[in-house]
Amino acid sequence: MYRYDEFDAAYVRERVAQFRDQTQRRIDGRLTEDEYKPLRLQNGLYLQLHAYMLRVAIPYGTLSSRQMRALAEIAERWDRGYGHFTTRQNIQFNWTRLSDVGDILDHLAAVEMHAIQTSGNCIRNVTADHFAGAAADEIEDPRPTAELIRQWSTAHPEFAFLPRKFKVAVTGSPNDRAVTRSHDIGLRMLRDANGAPGYEVIVGGGMGRTPMVGKVMRGFLPRAELLPYLEAILRVYNLHGRRDNKYKARIKILVHETGEAEIREQVEAEFRSILANGGAAHLPGEAELARIAAYFAPPALPERSAVSDREEDARTFDPVFAAWAEVNTTPHGVAGYAIATVSLKAIGASPGDATASQMRALADMADRYSQGELRISHEQNVILPHVARDDLPALHAALLREELAEANSGLISDIIACPGLDYCALATARSIPIAQDISRRFSDGPRARAIGEFRIKISGCINACGHHHMGHVGILGLEKAGVESYQITLGGDHTENAAIGERVGPGLGAEEVGPAIERLVDAYLDLRASPEERFVDVCRRLGLAPFKAAIYREDKRDAA
Amino acid sequence: MARSFVPSIVSANDLMIGDVVYLDASGGWTRSLAEAAVAHDAETAERLAALADQPGAVVGPYLADVALDGPVPRPLHFREAFRASGPSHRPDLKRHSE
């Protein structure tokens, strides 16, 4: 885990004191709301439908057990006993009182956390593969890179007022779990022919009202050149990004309107200029990169047999455990260990929500079974990254006690959903109740496992915080003629094979969505060539027409 | 043709707590829709909007259309209805369920 140095610690403390003072001045009337609003947003404090919401960054999704306990305490002491983990590896507290904000931020600072740059037109929390440092398929841990970018981008004076917000994601695995192709900048770690480390740099991806798959700006960028190259991209964007229209202000629009080749030329020219004008002198040297990387050194895991008799016995005699282990564990890079995904998608629950008691229990489990480490995934689940296979049955038993043992990772009830109109001031429709309804319809575990990988993603407005464009099934809640209306998109993919889903037809009423998804799934089960052929694969093979017919009951309408 | 006047109330978020409040007839703020001051005409709506300009007490006051078909003003837009009732996904988070 990265630990704050004296500069980090002092900076965060100063910012808390500064914001505490700004908040006090708003309360006693020395600041107007117009003056205060940009200040609170720079500190992650939003005013939502029912209360203030504080968005706290979880850099690259990594948490220590100590930090998780602090989040639990905040939820309990200053909120309503729960927190909401988001698709950008943040946590949101939905019931923050203005007079408590300073105390909450102090509490966060004590465990090296903050809410800075979780809002506003700046470089936001840098996200990463939630299996970082543990996955068997990893080329390299992406977190030292993400931390380097965090340090570079925090309070960077040149990039504090960009045309629009700016999001960066990093993956160290060829299997992209960080959605890099839908970020403003996505970085995929690579090795060149000589084994030297570097990045594929993807620029101009995004969701929102104009979804775009990012373009490869550089096929291979040597690791040492990362920061000046990022600086070049940001400078081109800062100079030419549209500030006249917020809907066209993201870098994806700049890349699209200017053209990929022209943007690449501008970025490369700026990059050369930075290096020629002394920028190279500011490159982090190998020693600094090594210093940061040392914080993410793999834990010293005791040697274990690759096969655990204890796990195998439990799989044989305990079908509930067997189902969970099959669906919610992933191969670890070290023999005898597994990565455990703890689902925050219990049937009928609100996706991504965890109670204070669950957070504390997860912290205890992390200490006992996972080297004190946790991760938050963009899929709104919690990861225990280093669990001995021998310990999986005991971990599962502990999860059962906390109602955290849903065996549905990657299945149809593992739904991403933004807070929607139940909380969000920008939302046009609710997301969570739609997720709850679908989840209940597919509560039967064997059926859900028979359906296989099935990614449903729900957004409550066009801003697409619920990643609906990249869902195998995307659901977008809008307002139509004074009622909630839900558009369905099919065929999206958030992985290295990134694809934007295609809208199939007119919106459905809230009560029509669940039944439509059931018909869609029935059609898929009829059409798939084998149980291994996922829904999104069938979409690619056959197109969307049969699924559109199922959603809108076109066969029945034709027959009538 | 001019739009006929729709009865309205003034809603805002409380400065300190951030929750939903309504302007009452005395120029104070209430959490009860039943106590909200209702404008039956444009002139009253304008007067209530002016009265609601209290930056030390609330954030973002605005007029919201209501129907007067029951004992309590009923917000016409579903967004306002959700603001009035609280989050819908957990019964314990409903307004007035604390």
UniProtKB/TrEMBL annotation, chain A:
The record places domain Nitrite/Sulfite reductase ferredoxin-like at 52-111, 352-400
For the keyword Oxidoreductase, the answer is yes
Q: What are the Nitrite/sulphite reductase 4Fe-4S domain coordinates in residue numbering?
A: 119-271, 414-551
For whether the record's keyword set contains Manganese, the answer is no
Q: Keywords of this protein's UniProt record, alphabetized?
A: 4Fe-4S, Heme, Iron, Iron-sulfur, Metal-binding, Oxidoreductase
Give one GO molecular function term: metal ion binding
Entry's PANTHER family?
BLR3264 PROTEIN, FERREDOXIN--NITRITE REDUCTASE, CHLOROPLASTIC
Q: Which protein are we looking at?
A: Sulfite reductase (NADPH) hemoprotein beta-component
Q: Look up and give the organism this protein is from.
A: Rubrimonas cliftonensis
Q: What is the lineage of its organism?
A: Bacteria, Pseudomonadati, Pseudomonadota, Alphaproteobacteria, Rhodobacterales
TrEMBL record, chain B:
The record's annotation in InterPro entries points to: DUF2849 (IPR021270)
Out of the domains of life, which is the source? Bacteria
Official protein name in the record: Sulfite reductase (NADPH) hemoprotein beta-component
Organism expressing this protein natively = Rubrimonas cliftonensis
